[in-house]
């Protein structure tokens, strides 16, 4: 399988190169040159398969040329063997129409483990083939950092430097990062906000000499391999609810548009997806874009759902490219315009291409609380705030009663227990697998938020390229 950039000029690459590159050299994002299509019989044949076997069937076309089916199975077995539930991503019923797909049974309690556990395995495999070394640098507002650290801790050919804004992530989130004491893991608390931390990371990537000296790489959701791993659970859930004979709708708590874009890929491959509901909090740029064609950046408002507090949704570019007719040069122009003016209109082709599959909703704090209470009172289910935003959007979407609606439950409620306690009066306990989190030793550096301080710290500890 070959991959092309959304901005039209970077060379086409195979899966291995795309995984290690992350971003394309023209600033675009990689997508397969065409979507692999599954027949009705191929989808029917997924019934009853384990998560790992489903993953192998769904991902095999995407990794063709880079991994054999045997290798892919090995990596998936290692990645998903670390989940605490035998079903990996189990479905839970809420009423006659609504279901939760629990994506938080991985080591760090959020859905990001599903993709990052596999990405850690892929990195290790590809780097040992090349005898190369990678330095991962990232900024996190919480969930990505812990999932990425867990996925690469102790790996020989990778160092990871993770920046978080000092005092602005929850205790659980910080400890999930700083109590990992492997020698290749470096946590850095930066004086400043998440945006300051992210700006420092961007500046390091823009320093071409520094980037190539340490072979810098990113683990945020612009990496195609992450999206690919997320396509699997759409198939896994839909088949259990009657696909391919029956259509299924999904509601997705959305920030960077990675998770819901994986649902779009599943639909493109032939899964009968009735609707993809994009659920946003009051930071509603995606809701405005999908309902009115208005993609314009506002100020971020902090909410109880920090992983959805975004101004710009990087993966939205992939939808604009594919739904708008795959004209990379035109999209590069459009994105340059957005980067200058912080606003753009979707073209008619982009709006029409998205309209038949996507709907969207903006859910405020009251809507979130109402959904949390509804799930608790009616089904005894405690939802985290992000999942509750998804459920609120699912319930108001007006989907025909014959179609099951699956809300993606993106985090374990214990990860956001203060917000859950405020809404429901119940404080969810931390699951046993992270039980001693608060008695473990922490290790992290505190640095001023300057480029000089951070690059000096990284340069002293990272492995330069041979
Ligand atoms: C990252 C995250 C999201 C948003 O997912 P995207 O792929 O960025 O749209 C939603 N909920 C939780 C808990 C997350 O960690």
Automatic annotation (TrEMBL):
Residues in Threonine synthase N-terminal domain copies: 2-80
Domain of life: Bacteria
Protein EC: 4.2.3.1
Pfam family, one: THR4_C
GO molecular function: pyridoxal phosphate binding; threonine synthase activity
SUPFAM superfamilies noted in UniProt: Tryptophan synthase beta subunit-like PLP-dependent enzymes
EC primary class: lyase
Tryptophan synthase beta chain-like PALP domain sequence ranges: 85-333
Swiss-Prot/TrEMBL cofactor(s): pyridoxal 5'-phosphate
Pathway: Amino-acid biosynthesis; L-threonine biosynthesis; L-threonine from L-aspartate: step 5/5
Residues with the N6-(pyridoxal phosphate)lysine modification: 112
Keywords: Amino-acid biosynthesis, Lyase, Pyridoxal phosphate, Threonine biosynthesis
Protein's name according to its UniProt entry: Threonine synthase
Organism annotation: Sphingobium cupriresistens
